[in-house]
TrEMBL record:
Record field: transmembrane: 7-23, 35-53, 60-81, 93-111, 118-140, 160-177, 189-208, 286-307
Protein name: GGDEF domain-containing protein
Gene3D superfamilies: 3.30.70.270
Record-linked CDD domains: GGDEF
Length: 484
């Protein structure tokens, strides 16, 4: 089926749904318009499977099976067959109820395809909202069904099973929406809209029966809700036109990111418990105190879990910021800030142990000309590759940091001046792209400050540049030492 054919199909189903609202009861038109779209949509979904890559078909197979269950249940209802004798639930109920776990399985598979790892923040948020709405469902749908002594226990359980199944779908739909990411892939979005519409139809039934039993028995009200179901399933079938649901495997981002709509939803869910408690106290008295207490405890625990997730994510991000602030973004080496913070303390320890210390300033020769000739991206790559190559030649107790621009600073410890010079020569040999560098080395006298030591190395560096570059110059001794 072409894209144009799909839109013709969607238009036809919509027209059939509208016609069903006004079809006469006699002559079979109403029954036909109620039944035919379900089977047509099932067939369309089967045809649409060819748009889906083989590895991605699992959730769509679940949706097809759910449509089959709905179509067969509608057939049983329209024809008026009571296939199960006695007071047991009819096959139509069993088929309608089968729709929910089958679709939930499809949603789980779609979420797994959307992300390679579980987004626990989305799961916690989904269950928090579901727990809040679940309190309302218990008070206005589940508990009244279970307390209805006019029917058998089996019938009561079946009636209560529908809102429970709705809560299951609601939780999985929220997880799907949260897992869809900012790119908003069409298939998950349309599936979520379809499931949301279907759940809205279920809510309409509950509201009508609680407001006034007579409303639920009016023919046009029944038809309007059935049309709402059909249009929701139509959106579900159209989602297969955009079957790609695989994302980048992220998901962790949603732990720290909590948008205003998400925060508002969580807040409303948390307010369900006190609102329900106040409502019951002001009307007929507290009837569901135990359920409200349990629900409140569950939501409190979920909020604490969410708070813990946010706290841990905040700590990880703070640690990352600290690491980034201490690392040069381009080369990954320690930056000048780390050098300035840690080098004075290192000298104090070295003075206590009388460890030989030398500092070497390194500057790539003619780096500006290299940038002008090959471009700044090539210059960045030169700095990166040079830093990696130099690190591999250093000893475990040496430290290389980026000082700024094309300048690096090297801390050499525990070696005589000849060995320190040999380390710098090894770095010169592995400098990439046949580039050279000038270097100035200063040996510490155990008395001068860290700034003075670096300043002497810097003076020696400029002497190396003035002397023709591609060489290492040794700094003069501190002035006071020379005077002694």
């Amino acid at each position: 089926m072409s894209r144009r054919g799909w839109w013709i199909y969607g238009t036809a189903i919509t027209i059939a749904a509208a016609a069903y609202l006004y079809a006469p009861e006699n002559g079979g038109w109403a029954r036909g318009l109620q039944l035919a779209p379900d089977f047509v949509m099932t067939g369309a979904m089967l045809v649409g499977l060819r748009f889906v890559p083989a590895r991605d078909r699992a959730p769509w197979f679940c949706f097809v099976l759910a449509l089959v269950a709905t179509a067969m249940a509608t057939l049983s209802t329209v024809v008026g067959l009571d296939w199960v004798p006695g007071d047991l639930p009819d096959v139509a109920d069993l088929l309608y109820l089968a729709f929910y776990p089958i679709v939930a399985a499809g949603l789980v598979l779609m979420v797994r395809q959307s992300q390679r790892r579980i987004d626990w923040a989305a799961v916690v948020d989904a269950f928090t909202v579901t727990a809040g709405i679940g309190l309302l469902a218990w008070s206005y749908a589940i508990a009244p069904s279970l307390r209805d002594d006019s029917t058998s226990m089996t019938s009561r359980l079946v009636a209560a099973a529908y809102p429970v199944a709705d809560l299951l779908l609601l939780a999985m739909t929220i997880v799907l929406v949260r897992s869809n990411g900012r790119e908003g892939r069409r298939a998950p979005t349309l599936v979520a809209i379809a499931i949301g519409g279907y759940l809205a139809g279920d809510c309409a039934w509950v509201l009508l029966r609680n407001l006034n039993d007579g409303w639920a028995d009016i023919a046009w009200v029944n038809r309007a809700i059935n049309v709402e179901y059909q249009l929701s399933l139509l959106v579900l079938t159209l989602a297969i036109l955009w079957p790609q649901v695989r994302g980048d495997g992220g998901g962790a981002g949603s732990v720290s990111h909590l948008s205003r709509p998400q925060l508002a939803g969580l807040t409303l869910a948390m307010l369900m418990s006190p609102a329900l408690l106040i409502t019951q106290e002001l009307t007929d008295g507290i009837v569901d105190g135990l359920a409200i207490g349990i629900g409140s405890a569950i939501m409190f625990l979920l909020v604490m879990v969410r708070f813990t997730q946010l706290l841990r994510q905040s700590e990880r991000q703070a640690q990352l910021v600290r690491e980034l602030s201490r690392r040069d973004e381009l080369t990954g080496l320690p930056n000048r800030r780390v050098w300035g913070e840690e080098f004075p303390a290192f000298l104090r320890r070295a003075a206590a142990d009388r460890v030989p210390v030398a500092v070497c300033m390194i500057d790539l020769d003619h780096f500006k000309a290299f940038n002008d000739t090959y471009g700044h991206p090539a210059g960045d790559r030169l700095l990166q590759t040079a830093a990696r190559a130099w690190e591999q030649e250093l000893r475990a107790y040496d430290l290389l940091a980026r000082y700024g621009g094309e300048e690096f600073i090297l801390l050499l410890t525990g070696s005589a001046i000849e060995d320190a010079m040999g380390v710098v020569d090894r770095l010169r040999d592995v400098t990439p792209l046949d580039q050279t560098f000038s270097a100035g080395m200063a040996v510490w006298d155990y008395e001068e400050t860290s700034d003075d030591l670096v300043a002497r190395a810097d003076v020696a560096l400029y002497a190396a540049k003035a002397g023709g570059r591609n060489r290492t110059c040794l700094a003069e001794e501190p002035l006071r030492t020379a005077q002694n």
